[in-house]
Known about the structure:
The complex is a heterotrimer.
Chain A: E1 5-17, E2 25-34, E3 38-43, H1 52-64, E4 71-73, H2 92-119, E5 126-129, E6 132-135, E7 141-143, H3 144-154, E8 160-167, E9 185-197, E10 202-213, H4 220-240, E11 245-246, E12 249-250, E13 268-274, H5 296-308, H6 319-332
Helix pairs in contact in A: 1-2, 4-5
Chain B: E1 4-10, E2 13-19, H1 25-32, E3 51-54, E4 57-60, E5 73-75, H2 88-96, H3 105-118, H4 124-130, H5 142-155, H6 184-188, E6 204-210, E7 216-222, H7 224-228, E8 232-236, E9 261-262, E10 268-274, H8 277-285, E11 288-293, H9 300-305, E12 318-326, H10 329-334, E13 338-346, E14 358-363, E15 369-373, H11 378-388, E16 396-400, H12 416-426, E17 430-433, H13 436-442, E18 449-457, E19 463-473, H14 481-491, E20 500-508, H15 523-540, H16 545-552, H17 571-582, H18 612-615
Parallel strand pairs in B: 1-5, 6-17, 15-16, 19-20
Antiparallel strand pairs in B: 1-2, 3-4, 3-5, 6-10, 7-9, 7-11, 8-10, 12-20, 13-18, 14-15, 14-17, 18-19
Chain C: E1 2-8, H1 13-22, E2 26-29, H2 35-38, E3 47-54, E4 64-66, E5 70-74, H3 79-84, H4 86-91, H5 94-101, H6 105-108, H7 113-119, H8 126-132, E6 136-143, E7 146-153, H9 154-157, E8 158-160, E9 163-164, E10 171-178, E11 184-190, E12 201-210, E13 213-222, E14 229-230, H10 232-238, H11 245-252, H12 265-283, H13 289-308
Parallel strand pairs in C: 1-3, 2-3
Antiparallel strand pairs in C: 4-5, 5-10, 6-7, 6-10, 8-9, 11-12, 12-13, 13-14
Amino acid sequence: MSLTKKxxxxxxxxxxxIARTAAMDQAGAWAEIDDGGSAKISTGVTEIGEGILxxxxxxxxxxxxxxxxxxxxxxxxxxxxPEAAHAGATRQTYMIGNAVALACRGARQKLFDVMxxxxxxxxxxxxxHNGEIWSExxxxxxxxxxAIHICKKKYGVIPVAxxxxxxxxxGLDPVDGSGRPWQAYVFGGQVAEVEVDTATGEVQLLGIxxxxxxxxxxxxxxxxxxxxxGVVQAVGQALMENYELDKGRTKSGSFxxxxxxxxxxxxxxxxxxxxxxxxxxxxxxxxxxEPAMVPTSPAIMNAIYDAIGVRIKSLPATPEKILNxxxxxxxxxxxxxx
Amino acid sequence: MPNLELKLTxxxxxxxxxxxxxxxxxxxxxxxxxxxxxxEGCGAGECGTCSVFINGKLVKSCLVPAAKAxxxxxxTVEGLGNPEQMSHIQKAFCATGASQCGFCxxxxxxxxxxxxxxxxxxxxxxxxxxxxxxxxxxxxxxxxFDAVEMARDVINKExxxxxxxxxxxxxxxxxxxxxxxxxxxxxxTGRLKYAADMKLPNMxxxxxxxxxxxxxxxxxxxxxxxxxIDGVRGxxxxxxxxxxxxxxxxxxxxxxxxxxxxxxxxxxxxAVAADTVEQARDAINAIKIKYKDLPAIYxxxxxxxxKILIHEHxxxxxxxxxxxxxxxxxxxxxxxDLIIEDEFSTQPVxxxxxxxxxxxxxxxxxxxxxxxxxxxxxxxxxxxxxxIMNLPIHxxxxxxxxxxxGFGGKEDMIYQGMLALLATKTRQPIKxxxxxxxxxxxxxxxxxxxxxxxxxxxxxxxxxxxxxxxxADGGAYGCSTEGVMRKAAILGAGPYNIENLKMDTRxxxxxxxxxxxxxxxxxxxxxxxxxxxxDIAAEKLQMDPFEIRRINAFVKGNLxxxxxxxxxxxxxxxxxxxxxxxxxxxxxxxxxxQIRKDTFSKDNRDACExxxxxxxxxxxxxxxx
Amino acid sequence: xxxxDNYFIPKTLKEYFELxxxxxxxxxxxxxxxxxxxxxxxxxxxxxxxxVVDVSRIKELNTFKFGSKKILMGAATNYQKLFLDKKxxxxxxxxxxxxxxxxxxxxxxxxxxxxxxxxxxxxxDGMPALLTLNTKVTVARFKNKKIVKExxxxxxxxxxxxxxxxxxxxxxxDFELENTDGYGACFEKVGHRRSLVISTVCVASLVxxxxxxxxxxxxxxxxxxxxxxRLLKTEKFLKGxxxxxxxxxxxxMLDLNVIKSRxxxxxxxxxxxxxxxxxxxxxxxxxxxxxxIQKFDNKVKQNLETVHA
Lengths: 338, 625, 309
C-alpha cells in the first residue's frame, strides 16, 4: 500500500546538427521589392507549423527595409518556386533564411544603387528600415513606396534578385565514421520536475526548464513555441504513447488506444534562449525544431529516479511500469529495474 | 441518393437542404456547405478538431448524425469572425503565437469560446479542464492557454485591446522581434484550406485496399465484382505503373502498390477511384485477394539472423550499419575507475499530426501531372514521381498544400503515387483523404530502439571510453532508416569530449510497420541512453549531475565523435544558464527528491487533480446558454 | 463508416413502441458517442444499418425530479447535466466527480447515462457511482399492445460484459437514485493520462460519519471485472467501526479478489487497494487532506514494519 505523491528533479543535456546530415545542403530564393514598399519572396519553403514563413518575412523585412506584414511569400510549388525544400533536419531557418537574406541583399543593392544616383550620394550611406529609406548624414529620406516608384518608373530598374545558400558538409568515412556532417551545431539542456503518485504509478510532469542555443533567435516567441511543442511530444513518448504491435498488427490503431498528451498533461515550460551565433552564415541563426525535444525524456527519467529511486530504462514509463519497479525495488533493494 | 431533408440555422443563416441520410453533421458542414473550418482529425470524438456549437452547447460534430441536428442553431468557426474582423479570442490567438500548423486551431478557438462564454472569469486550471477534449500536437498548449487568458482579461476589461497588436521588437531590427505569425489569421478563422478541404470540379474519390497480413505472397487480385460497382471510374494495381516502381527517402525500395508480396499490415495493394467515397469503399470491400502467408519477422534480433529475408533481392535484412571509431576503447576501459553497463529501449511512436494524410491530383491543360499534398519534401517527391510515371521532370508538378503537422511523417511519398496513377488513368481530378486509422496503420513510425551501453570513467567523472550499440527496427521498408542510423551514431554519445569511442548503429528490415523520419531522427534514442548513463555514473561517483556534464562538455577546438573540429561549443554556457534558470540545488542524483529544497518551484504548473471547476467557478457564476 | 437508410426520432414512448413494432431491423441509439467511434476500421469496420432509432428526445426519457429522498433522472440525461446541476453537486457529490473524468465537455453534452449503462462496458465509469447511490432502473416493454414498466436494481439490469436485461424493443426509461445529501464522496480513476481516457481501475466511495464512527460506507469498483460491483465485505466491515487507520487498512484487503481481469492483475490489485483507502479518506472531507493521507501512509508503513520485524 502506498498513497503519497513524491516529487523529484532531473537534468539532461543534448546537442544536434543543423541541416542535412553528411551531405551538401542547398537552398535558393528570389526576392523583389515591390510596389507600395512591399516585397515578394519566392522559395521552396515548407511551413509545417514551425513558423518559418514568419521568420522569412522578418528576414526579408530586415534586409530590404520593409515591414514584415508587407512581405508576400509565394507558394511552395516545384514548377513555380526555386528549390529549397525540404522541412526536416532543423534546416529551414538556416538554409532558407540565409538564402532569402542573400537574395534580399541582391535586390536591395539594385534599389540602393538607383537611390544613390537619385540623391547623388554614395550607395553605402543608404539605409532602409520599416518602410523608410534614407541616406545617413543627409536630409534625404522618403517612404519605401515612393523610392520603389522612382526606381521602377524613372530609372526602369526592378529591384529583383535570386541567390543560393550552400552548407558544406562531407560524408562519413565508412570505417571510422570520421567527417564533417554539418557546419553548425546547437547545444541544449533541460531540467524536469515530476510528481509521482505512488498509489497508481502515474507521473505528472509539472515543470520543464529549457535552455537552448539557437545561434540567433529571429523570432524568440517562435523559438519558445518550438521548445514547448517539442517538450510535449517528448512527454508523450516518455510517459504515455506506445504504438504497440502484436505479430505485426497494431493494438493502438486509433486515438482511443494511442494516448496523446492533452492540455491536462503538459508541464509549464520556462525557456531561456542562448545565442552563440554561427560564424559561417550571414544570419548567424541555427535552429531549434528537433533539438528542443532531445533532452526531455532523459530529464524526466532522471527526475523519476530522484523522486522514487527507480530508473526506467524502457519508454514509455507507464503507471504499471512505475508501480512494478517500485515493488521490485522493495523486494530486492535493487534500483536498476526495467 | 440524398433523402434527408434538413432545416437548420448555421451561423445565423437559415439553411434548407437535402443530404445523405448517413451523413454526420461534420460531413454536412464540410461537403454540402463548404464550411471546411471544422475539421476531421480522427472521426471518433478523440481530437476535438470537429467542435461546433449546437444550440449553444459545444459538441464534437463527428459524433452527431446530421439528422439529429435538424431544427437546431449551429455555430461554426466561420461564424466567429473572419481575417479582417476577428473575435477577441481569435485576436488573442494571433497575439500569443498560439497557432503553429493550425489544424487543431479552429477547434481550439471554439473550445476557448465555449469556455469563456460559460465561465467569463475562468482561471487557468478551469480553462485547461474545459479544453481537455481538444488535442494539439504542435504547440504544447502553452501559448493557447496564454491566448485564452489574454482574451479573458480583455473581455473583462482588465487589459486593453492594445495587447492584441503590441509585440517586442529591437529598436532598428526585425531580427529578434516577436512579429505575429503571418499565417495566424487564416488559421484562427478556419479559412485556410488544407488538402482535405479542397474541391475540384468533376473530382473522383480514391480509396485504398490495404494488406491485412504482415508477410504474404499475393497470388491473385480479383477485381470483377469491384469493377461492376456503380460509380467506379478507375482501379489501379502495381501493373499500372509505367516507369520504375520504387520510392523511398534514402533507398528506393517501396513500390507504389504492392508488387508480388506484401511486407506489412497496412501496405497498399489496390486503389479505386469512384464518384463518391462510399462507392469507392464498396468497391474496395468487393475486391478479393488471395494470399499465401509467409513466415514473418517481428523482432530485429531475429532479422539479424537472416533466416528469412524481407527483401530477397537485397540478400540481407540489414538496411544500414553506421560505425564510428575513435581512439582505443579496449585500452581506455582498463584505465577506468568506474565501468558501468546498461541497456535502454524506446518504443515505436506515431507522429499523430492532427491532419490525416490527404491529397488531390490532376493532369492539367499542358499535360503536367500535378499533385497537391502536404508533402514535406516536394523536391524529392517530384524526382521520384517522374521516374515512376515515366515523365520528364518538368512535366511533374508538386504543390505543397498547407501542412497540418508533419514531424517527419509527411516525408514519405506513401500515397501520392496512387493519386498520380488514377489521375492519369481517369483524366479526372482525384481526391484522397485517409481516415485516422488508415493513417496510423500505414505510415512510418519513430524507430523503436535497443541500446547497449558501456561507459568507463575516472573517479573525477571524466569519461574515458564509451561503447554504444544500437539496434533499430526499420520495419518493412527503408524510408529514412539510413539517415536515422547515421544521426543516431554521430550524435549519440552526447555533447562530450570523448577520446575513445566505439559506436555502432544498425537498422534492419522486419515485417512491422515501417519506421521513418520523426523529429530528432535517431539522436533522441541514443542521447536518451547517454543522459541516463551519466546520471547513473554521477550517483556512483557522488557528483552533481551538472558537474559531471561540465567536466566532459565540449569546448571550442575539441574534435567531435567524427573528428570534426568545433569552431564553437556553447554547452557550458547552456548548462550554466540552465542551472540558474531552474534554481537547481546541487547534489548527487541519489533519489534526494524528498529532501531537496528546489522542488515545488512556482514555475511549475499545479498538479492536475481534475475538478478545478468543481472547486470554484471563476466568479461562481456559470452562464447557462 | 456507419451507413444507414433511415433515422427516426420518436418523441414519446408510445411513438417509439408503435414505430419499433412496425419497422423491423432497428438499431437504438441515444447520444451516438459509442456507435460512431465503433463503426470504424479496427473495430466494427464498415457498418450498414437499415433503421436507426434515436431515443434521446423521448419525453419520458428526459424527466428530472429532485426529491429529498429520491432523484429521478431520465435515461437520456446527458453526463454534462450530472456535472453542472447545482442540486446534484450539493447532494450527489460523487456524480460531478465521475462526470469530470468522463470523456470531455463536448462528449458529455451528447453522451447519455442510459446509453452508457446499456453499453455495459466493464471499464464504464458511470456504473460504479450509480451503484453507490443504490440506483434502480425502469425498463419499458411492449406487451399485448400495452406499455408495461418494470423497476429493478441496477445490479440486476446489468448482467455481464455488454449484456443488459433488454429484449427486442425493450427500452431503458429512467434511473432512480438515492439522495445522499450529507454523505462525503470521492471518485478515483487511473488511466494513461489525465483526461479522455479508459479506466484501468476506478473506485467510487460514499461515506457517512457519526462522530468518530462510520455510519454508512459504500464502495464500488470498475475496470477490474466483467461488471462493476459494490465491495460488500469492505462496507460491512467498516459500518459501525471507529474511523482509524487500522480499520480502514484492514477493510481495504477484504474484497481484492473481485479482480477478475487477467491482464495487469497485480497492478490493478495494488491500485485498487490504494484507491479504496484514499477515496474513503477523501470522502471524510477533512481539510488538510494531503497531510491526512501522508499521516495514514506513514502510520500504516510503520505498523507493517513492526509486524515484519
